Amino acid sequence: MSVVLKSSCTKVLRKICAQFRTVWAALASSRRMRWEISVLLGTILAVVLTAQCSSFASTAARVRQDTLRLHVQAASDSPADQLLKLRVRDAVLQQAVQIFTDCPDQAAAKKAAAAALPQIQLAAERAVAQQGASCPVRVYITRMSFPTTHYQHFSLPAGPYDALRVELGKARGHNWFCVLYPALCLPAAGLDSPTAWPTQQEQQLVSSGCTVRFAVLEWWQHLVGTKSAVSA
Hints:
Helix content is about 55%, strand content about 15%. It has a domain at about 65-225.
């Protein structure tokens, strides 16, 4: 009985497909109809892509909201200033291990950063002095735009982030930036297990390596006027 029913269903499906091909051929014979079909299919594709991009952008926004970045900018691009930048970075990260490792969320990390600004400032100034330099150091919390950033095991979408910013001298040189929360750039945390974003969607996004989607998102943000304030 089931064999007979299956055979009957197969015949019906074949008839439907045959009728569809006949209708499609008739429609395609009309030049105007072909144009209208093309417009309709283009509209459907645009709607689907817009929905997907909207969902991706929404998740990317949550990633940015749940992340605290670190940004260290050198006084200039001279070899001495670039080396000094790295020494200051190391000093800041050593302090950050104590400050950020146990923070339960981004809000707590940001609050801890604000409370520890004098401590971080002192560590940066000591690193400058140890190098025999005398440039001024400025440490503060700000909200700034970053480009799409690809690390070894995760990627972060472009856009505005809360950041702990360290400026050396006139801050006109190349910069170094990473992530304080989740604690992915701390010496004790490592970069092998970026699993600390609060939702599965966020974790999938940062771990997916969606290069094309990240590029499209950055292009869209540039189009609507959200430009990156820093570069690699």
